[in-house]
Every structure is written in C-alpha cells, then in structure tokens.
Here is the input.
Amino acid sequence: MTAVECAYPRKIREGGLDGQDDVADSGRRWAWARTLGGLGLLALLLWLVGTGPFLAGLRLITVPALAAALAIGGITTVCGAWRWRLVARGLGVRLPLPTAVAHCYRAVFLNATLPGGILGDVHRAVGHGRAVGDLGRSARAVLWERTAGQVVLAVVAMVVLAVFPSPVRPYLPVVTATLAGVGLGAALLAWMRPTGQSRWARVVRVAIADIRAGLLARRTWLGVLLASILAVVGHLATFVLAARTAGSTAPLSLLLPLTLLALLAMGIPANIAGFGPREGAAAWAFGAAGLSAAEGVAIAVVYGALVLVASLPGAAVLAARRVRVPAGTV
Here is the structure.
C-alpha cells in the first residue's frame, strides 16, 4: 500500500465509484465554502470602507511599479522553484530547475486568478507527478516545500512583530508558547516513532522520513532556508512597493509588521483570486495601528494587482502548454 493510499479510509479505497463520488462531493462543498467565505469577506469590506479604497489604489499604479513588481516576482518565483527542486531531490524525485521555474510561474498565475489560492500548487503537484510517474512523492514534495515556506514566514513574522510595535504585540507571548507547545508535541511524536500497521502510524512514519530527507538533510536544509528567506524578503519588498505606490508615508518600522500580518492572512484559502483575507487583515492591522482601514485596503489591493502582473509569465507558460498539447490529450 502506498503512502497516498494510506491517506484515505478503507471505505473510500475499496468503495469504488461511490467512494470517489463521496470524495468529489466533499471537495466541491469545501471549494464552495472557501469561495463563499471569500465573497462574504469582500462584501463586508465593501460595506465598511466602500469602493473608494479599492479603486483609488488601482488608479495610483504606475508603469515603473509594475516593472519593479515583475522583477521582484521573478526573483521570488525562482527562489520557490529552487526550494521545490531541493525538496523533490531529497525525496528522490527528479526536477530540473527550468522545469520547476515554469511550473512555479504557472502555479503563481493560477493561484492569483482562481478562488482558493492553492489550485496552482495542486496543478503543479499533479502535473509533475504524472510526468515522473510518482504522484505520491510529487504531491508530498509540493506539500513540504510550501510548508517550509510558511514556517519560515511565521518565524520571520514572530521576530519582526516582537521587535517592532504592532497591534498583536501584547499577544505574542501566548502565541509563542502555543507554537512552542505544538512544536514540542511534533518532536515527541517523531521521537516516539509510532509502531504498528494502522493508517495513522504509516502516515506519521512517512511524514518523518520526508522531513528528514526532504527538508533536514545536510545538502538540503541550508538551501531551503535561504530560498525561503529570500522569498519572504521579496514578498515584503513587493508590499512596501505597493504601500509607496498607494501613497502611504508610514515608516518601515511600522509598515513591516503590518505587512507581515497581511502576508500571514494570505495563507487562509478562503479568497477570490487572492483577494479577501489579505485585505481584511490589512484593514484591521492598519486601523489598529492608528492609520486607517481604507489605507490598509488600498495597499493590499495594489499588492494584489502587482502580484497578478508579476505572475503573467505564468499565463504565457500555460498558453504554451496548451499549444504544445492538443485538445483532449492528457
């Protein structure tokens, strides 16, 4: 039994078409829930601040800002591709860097234009898995690569939020203690190495082996860490660019922690083409920091537009793929 099969209950693995239909229905319901959640949040923001901040931010975007965003996006995309290649190599899956860059550009474009914000990553996991004939390890490589990026982002955010004033600074001790407890629990689980043949035990053993080979191996961990840090710096630079483009004069010491709060909110999958939680978090953070919710929304909207422009090479990759592969061909 493969690790991918272990992730599904026996009823679904052996249930044939009915089990597959149940999984598909559950996925559709979850997708609709995410989409409706994103629409609801956007509707709430429009009701609270009106359409002014959304439109005002877009009108301020300049060609130099778009060019800068495109350049920064190229750097962050290459960093993400490099990280993915390192993790995939650690798991024993071949992934040339040019292929990884093309897949990542396409994923960024799909994430920026489709609901949920994760469909592009699912697409690259499935596409790479089919290309190498190992969907399980390819999917896990994308999972761990994305997880590594989010962990580094969270650590950078905790450090910056602790150093600079922010609305969440009073809650950092509780958050830090909670995360430390979760990390300690995960470490104890890895140390105990669950035995037996239960699905849970097999999944835990596969996860431990993946982390050791794909993230913590001697020839992998430093590159993964460096690529993740550079990607975070690129996202911060794009957000600061968006803030200056939107006319914000807030100092970096105030802007950086608020930016990180918005970036953390982007991890919530309930969004519409990337919009939703990011704007909501920016509105709350900027308002709580003594600025204005409208300013936060305008900056977040400009950031979304810059990211969309930076992802446009992915549209070219997607179009080229459609030209090379005839309609109806898998």
Notes: Residues 321 and 327 are 11 Å apart (CA to CA). The chain is about 80% helix and 0% strand.
